[in-house]
Structures are given as structure tokens and as C-alpha cells.
Amino acid sequence: MRRSKYDLILDAAVSLIATDGLDALSYESLAHAAGLSKSGIIYHFPSRHDLLLGIHKHLAEAWETELRSIAGAPAEELTDAQRLRAVLISMGRTAELTELIMILDARNDPGYRAVWAGVDKRWMPGPDTSDAYLVQLIAYGLWAHDHLHHEPLSPADRERLLAAALAQIPS
């Protein structure tokens, strides 16, 4: 199946952010990376805000697809424990740098935050469910660990910690 130019642009933007950071993302750099004209980029994303919103949606949709794949069903068909298990397994891997950058960027704009909040609302427990939320915080730690700590977790340590966290999911 042929990829759309829209998806090609978003994939190129994700790659650019991963290698050069969010500040390096411009219409010119993106056009070069995507192999399109600057006007071709502008056609799909008339403003930088539209482009960034598109990237947030693209990444959030990819994450939700991953969560559905892990869980074997959409969020609304699962129990709280099944949703939390999928989130923990997904976040048990090391965050891609672009994901981490974009999550941090979302704090600056209500529209960007709303994209991620939709996924959070469907899949994650709220802080009022203390035992489940504690497991959620462990998931965040596993996900961001290698970007925040001077030494990454070994695969064996990551697997051990993930198993221990999975055992903490309230039934």
C-alpha cells in the first residue's frame, strides 16, 4: 500500500526531531527530509502549530494502536487491570526520544495536551485509584529511565522490574 504524503511528512518530522531536536524542525528541513517541496508541506500543515499538532496526533495514535495490540481489544472492552497491564507493558520499554520530547512539548499547549489526555483517559488510572496509579508511576519511570539516568537499565533488569510491576496491578 502506498503511503500518503501526509504520513510521509509526519514520519520525516518524527525522524528529524529524534536526530536534531524540536528546534531544528522547520518547513525547509522537513521538506528536505521528506523529499517534498516546502509548499507541499504547507499544503498539509499551513502553520507550525498544525504541524506540531499533527505530530502529536500521529504519535498518540501509534501508541494507542500499540496498546490495543498488546491488550487484544480497544480500551472500552477491557477491565481496568487489563488496560493498566497493556500500559505497563508498553511503557516498560525505553521511550523513543521523539516521544519523550513531544510529551514534554505537550505541556505548553492545551490542544497538544488534549491529544495525549484522550489516550490517558481511555487507558490509564487516575490518581484517585492509589494502588493502580502507583503502578502507572512505575510505568512512567521505566519508560523515561534511560533518558534521565546516567546508565541505562540492562535488558535483564528491565525485564525483572517490569515483572515486579506487573505483579502489583490491583485485580
Structure description:
Keywords: DNA-binding, Transcription, Transcription regulation. GO terms for molecular function: DNA-binding transcription factor activity; transcription cis-regulatory region binding. This is Transcriptional regulator, TetR family. This protein is mostly helical. The protein contains nine helices and no strands. The longest helix has 24 residues, at 48-71. The termini are far apart.
How would you sum up this structure in a few lines?
By secondary structure, this protein is an all-alpha fold. It is built from nine helices and no strands.
Our measurement of the CA-to-CA distance between the termini, rounded to an integer number of angstroms, reads 42 Å
How would you spell out the order of helices and strands?
HHHHHHHHH
Domain module tally: 2
Spans of at least 5 consecutive residues with low confidence: none
Number of strands: 0
Shape: globular
Predict the CATH topology of the largest domain. Answer: Tetracycline Repressor, domain 2
Number of helices: 9
CATH structural class of the largest domain: Mainly Alpha
**Computed structural class:** mainly alpha
Radius of gyration: 18 Å
Which labels suit this protein?
Tetracycline Repressor, domain 2; transcription; HTH-type_TetR-like_transc_reg; DNA-binding transcription factor activity; globular; transcription regulation; 2 domains; DNA-binding; Arc Repressor Mutant, subunit A; 9 helices; 171 residues; 71% helix
Write the layout of secondary structure elements.
Elements: H1 5-20, H2 27-34, H3 38-44, H4 48-71, H5 80-91, H6 97-106, H7 110-123, H8 130-148, H9 155-166
Helix pairs in contact: 1-2, 1-4, 2-3, 4-5, 4-7, 5-8, 8-9
